């Protein structure tokens, strides 16, 4: 059966914000610099949450599912979104695929191009993808369901302790769905599935392609940075936000460290 996109949220206000959000300009970067670094964690690591599988065990599996909101490996912290703010002109967006933790096989995909096209969320085995991802305000969040069962993406805008529903839609088995990242007061969005409570993810809104997400070893890197002074932000949905002022010289390389701690 041929699948069609179900599009939600394409109202004039959203279209207008998407049209005016393109302040970033792609241009050749001459003698760009690079930023690399590591994110670490200090203190007692919070225990992972454990969820009993109550729906569609034929797809999700019968074993309890865990959600590691703070993923630490030997003191190295994963899933931290690193964003270089203040870059108005530079490299294009790069394609990427990031996978969720087993037994889930969900994926987050970003396409290459001169503009931020969409954040693609591709659930499989009752997993949306990795714990953190990237969106852009006013841009699509494209769901491609690789499970034969229904999921119900429920998105929230998060500002401090306040969360406001953005969308609450059904994603049919093997179906597709477009939502729009209608973030008005913050850059943080949470995604949950109302069918499967272990499916929880967070997204941070970016304004340029100069971002990274820390790997299992805590490492990250950002290349082709135009020389200049910037603010480098490190954000984790549970541990909060840290920032540093950085200066990138022409052809230079700088090393940055961020440390988060338990509350």
What can you tell me about this protein's structure?
With 263 residues, the protein is mainly β. The protein has a single domain, classed as Cupredoxins -  blue copper proteins (Immunoglobulin-like). It has two helices and 24 strands. It has helices at 12-20, 57-60, and strands at residues 6-7, 25-26, 33-42, 49-51, 65-67, 72-73, 76-77, 81-85, 89-90, 96-99, 107-110, 119-122, 132-135, 140-144, 153-159, 162-168, 176-180, 188-193, 200-205, 211-213, 219-225, 228-236, 240-248, 253-261.
Summarize the structure.
The protein has helices spanning 12-20, 57-60, and strands at residues 6-7, 25-26, 33-42, 49-51, 65-67, 72-73, 76-77, 81-85, 89-90, 96-99, 107-110, 119-122, 132-135, 140-144, 153-159, 162-168, 176-180, 188-193, 200-205, 211-213, 219-225, 228-236, 240-248, 253-261.
CATH architecture label name: Sandwich
Order of helices and strands: EHEEEHEEEEEEEEEEEEEEEEEEEE
Low-confidence stretches: 1-21
Strand order of the largest sheet: 1-17-14-12-11-10
**Major beta sheet, specifics?**
6 strands, mixed
- CATH domain fold name: Immunoglobulin-like
């Amino acid at each position: 059966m041929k699948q069609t996109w179900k599009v939600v949220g394409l109202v004039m206000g959203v279209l207008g914000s998407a049209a005016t959000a393109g302040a970033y300009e792609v241009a050749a970067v001459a003698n760009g610099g690079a930023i690399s670094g590591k994110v670490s964690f200090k203190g007692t690591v919070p225990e992972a949450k454990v969820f009993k599988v109550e729906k569609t065990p034929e797809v999700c599996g019968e074993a309890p599912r865990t959600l590691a909101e703070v993923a630490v490996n030997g003191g190295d912290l994963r899933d931290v979104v690193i964003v270089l703010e203040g870059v108005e002109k530079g490299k294009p967006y790069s394609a990427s695929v990031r996978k969720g933790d087993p037994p889930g096989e969900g994926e987050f995909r970003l396409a290459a191009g001169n503009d931020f096209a969409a954040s693609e969320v591709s659930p499989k085995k009752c997993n949306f993808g990795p714990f953190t991802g990237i969106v852009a305000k006013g841009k699509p969040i494209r769901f491609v369901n690789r499970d034969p069962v229904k999921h119900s993406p429920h998105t929230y805008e998060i500002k401090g302790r306040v969360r406001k529903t953005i969308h609450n839609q059904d994603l049919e088995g093997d179906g597709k769905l477009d939502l729009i990242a209608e973030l008005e007061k913050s850059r943080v969005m949470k995604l949950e599935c109302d069918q499967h409570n272990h499916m929880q993810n967070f997204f941070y809104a970016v304004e340029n392609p100069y971002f990274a997400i820390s790997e299992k070893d805590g490492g990250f890197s950002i290349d082709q940075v135009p020389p200049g002074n910037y603010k480098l932000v490190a954000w984790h949905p549970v541990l909060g936000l840290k920032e540093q002022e950085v200066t990138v010289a022409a052809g230079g390389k700088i090393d940055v460290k961020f440390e988060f701690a338990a509350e």
